[in-house]
Amino acid sequence: MRQVPDLESLRLLVLVGEHGSLGRAATELGIAQPSASKRLSTLERRLGLALVDRTRRGSALTPAGTVVSDWARRVLDEVDGLLTGADALRSERDAQLRVAASMTVAEHLAPGWIGELRRTDPELYVGLQVTNSGTVADLVLRGEVDLGFVESPSVPAGLSTRRVATDRLAVVVPPDHPWARRRRPVGPPELAGTPLVVREPGSGTRDTLERALRLAGAGGIRPLLELGSTTAVRSAVMAGAGPAVLSVLAAGVDLVDGRLVEVSVDGLDLRRSLRAVWPAGRSLVGPAADLLAVAVRGR
């Protein structure tokens, strides 16, 4: 039977990636550095992977460590969600507004919208689920949330929709990738024929890319690595795994700082609309209507 890594070891790995230092990660967890080093070594043995490069200048995640760190972050987030949910059940406190958002919207837009809404109603309790666009649509259709935000190019029947923002996808590579120095744009056939780091099926970013390639007559994509979050895709690209197509909302800071380079693309429309969705035939009222109004004002 495989041994399951303990949560504190996963949290330590995530902190090493964030701080670039085993010592600082150990300090944040309140443990001695030798103990932290032993925990990381045990984690590497259990997984059979080299996760951290240790040098005199600090500690850096290996490419495998970067991917595992993102998965670990998702596990820790789920555990935090479990504990938060248990607290809510104990207090019998129900969310007054249940929202689901795709990852790009949840990471870059929804916090501002919800913050503005709560400034006018500080007592409002908002429950936000972060998932891919396909799952957001399913949650809205099943009535499990009051309002959803998606980034996919189409939505299922049975949903009303309204555009709340616009976005653009960009082909991105690390600075040392050959595409970072090329002078001619990448065309749809070449992009379709190149193995890419991609999100999982159901992701709005992946759906938008696949639709754009089909419309350009270039066929589908060739996944090199499938990851469950935008953060994981960014990290894998910066670690040298391969090119990816990301929202400029998600990659903007990395492009400005030079950690990623945008590659020119010719003959491919990668613009998209980010939209709110709710059950068709139903008028939004109360906090859900207020949140939609805040999102629309921010366009």
From TrEMBL:
PROSITE patterns: HTH_LYSR (PS50931). Residues 180-203 are annotated as: Disordered. This is LysR family transcriptional regulator. It comes from the Bacteria. It comes from Solihabitans fulvus. One of its GO terms (molecular function) is DNA-binding transcription factor activity. PANTHER family: HTH-TYPE TRANSCRIPTIONAL REGULATOR (PTHR30126), HTH-TYPE TRANSCRIPTIONAL REGULATOR CYSL (PTHR30126:SF39). It holds the Pfam family LysR_substrate.
